[in-house]
Amino acid sequence: MAEEVLANKKKVMVAIDESECSHYALKWALENLPDCIASSAPLVVFTVQPISNTSFISVTSHGSASLELIKSVQEHRKKISLALLEQAKEICSKHGVVAVTITEVGDPKGIICEAVEKFKIDLLILGNHGRGALQRAFLGSVSNYCMQHAKCPVLVVKKQT
Question: Cα–chain-centroid distance for residue 102?
Fold first, then answer.
């Protein structure tokens, strides 16, 4: 269904997670790019449910993780993602913007870039977590990865401190 809605106009996608930075990016885009968003297809608000880290679950469950525990963690993440998207949809609605919400499961870096291609996105908007160089080296940066690999322009919104 989302693919049908996104068929003909320019498409803008805001990728969000639970961070304050991504909510800031969404609000910033709605307030600072109203013409771009208003003339586009419905705004795509996208989030990724990270793959469950079963090694962490195994350690906390004293050995091997049960299938029920893994499913429970995945269901919990899905509920969080859906609540996050619902909150984002309400923010968009308050700005008079129609939003289509999409969630997928996987590594955020790759999944966001795949979604850009899958939904033929023309502009990707992301928040910047403001991690230092050391954290970026160990954890990687979703925004840096998307700037290098997404098949469209990428706007990274950094929250002013």
Answer: 9
Cα gap 97→92, rounded to integer Å: 5
Residue with tokens 């992301």: 126
Of 60, 44, 49, the C-alpha closest to 120 is 44
Each residue's pLDDT tens digit, 20-29: 989 999 999 9
Q: Which residues contact 72 (CB under 8 A, 6 or more apart)?
A: none
The per-residue pLDDT for 128 is: 85
- The answer to whether residues 129 and 21 touch, using CB atoms and an 8 Å cutoff, is yes
| 42 DSSP β-pair partners | none
How is 55-115 classified by DSSP, letter by letter? HHHHHHTTSSPPHHHHHHHHHHHHHHHHHHHHHHHHHHHHTT--EEEEEEES-HHHHHHHH
Q: Tell me the pLDDT tens digit for each residue of 112-127.
A: 999 999 999 999 999 9
91-110 confidence digits (pLDDT tens): 999 999 999 999 999 999 99
Query: Closest Cα to residue 98, out of 43, 149, 141?
Result: 43
